[in-house]
């Protein structure tokens, strides 16, 4: 991964001497691998997308879990990985949501979002993996890996927690 704990340490140190600064809003894209969402979850996601649009453009992209109906778990993860990587541009700043990622609080998440605006990235892509996690290509491509909780979350719940943190 291109970004490590040093970014988070810098963010925490800067917090104590933070002065308001101009930040270029970076478009946000959320890539979620999984089954079709319930109507209730989709309504909440749509509501957050509308709220976020006052600050930056935001897109919600759903990728079907196991797109080639592989019977083998490894093949399923590879197929999902290929589908996700096909939607990521070279100049995207990629955040992989993973149960083993860095544990950020709301303030660190907000500061991370602010700092990405100064990296030159054209878009910020958040990736929520399928039922068996992320593939190797995405793990190598991700700029940072974060976790939303110490507990494993259902993909729909993870999406809602992420949306709340982005809006916060």
TrEMBL record:
It holds the Pfam family SPOUT_MTase. InterPro entries: Alpha/beta_knot_MTases, RlmH-like, tRNA_m1G_MTases_N. PANTHER family: METHYLTRANSFERASE, RIBOSOMAL RNA LARGE SUBUNIT METHYLTRANSFERASE H. Keywords: Methyltransferase, S-adenosyl-L-methionine, Transferase. One of its GO terms (biological process) is rRNA processing. This is RNA methyltransferase At5g10620. The keyword Cell cycle does not apply. Signal peptide: none annotated. SUPFAM superfamilies: alpha/beta knot (SSF75217). Transmembrane segments: none annotated.
């Amino acid at each position: 991964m291109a970004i490590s704990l040093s970014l988070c340490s810098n963010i925490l140190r800067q917090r104590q001497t933070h002065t308001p600064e101009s930040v270029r809003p970076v478009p946000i894209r959320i890539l979620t691998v999984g089954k079709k969402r319930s109507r209730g979850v989709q309504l909440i996601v749509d509501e957050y997308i509308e709220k976020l649009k006052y600050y930056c453009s935001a897109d919600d992209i759903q990728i079907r879990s196991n797109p080639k109906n592989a019977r083998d778990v490894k093949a399923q993860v590879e197929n999902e990985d290929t589908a996700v990587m096909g939607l990521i541009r070279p100049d995207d700043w990629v955040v992989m949501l993973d149960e083993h990622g860095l544990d950020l609080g709301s303030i660190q998440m907000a500061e991370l979002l602010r700092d990405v605006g100064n990296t030159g990235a054209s878009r910020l892509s958040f990736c929520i993996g399928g039922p068996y996690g992320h593939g190797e290509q995405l793990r190598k491509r991700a700029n940072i890996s974060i976790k939303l909780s110490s507990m494993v979350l259902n993909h729909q719940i993870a999406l809602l927690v992420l949306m709340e943190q982005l809006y916060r």
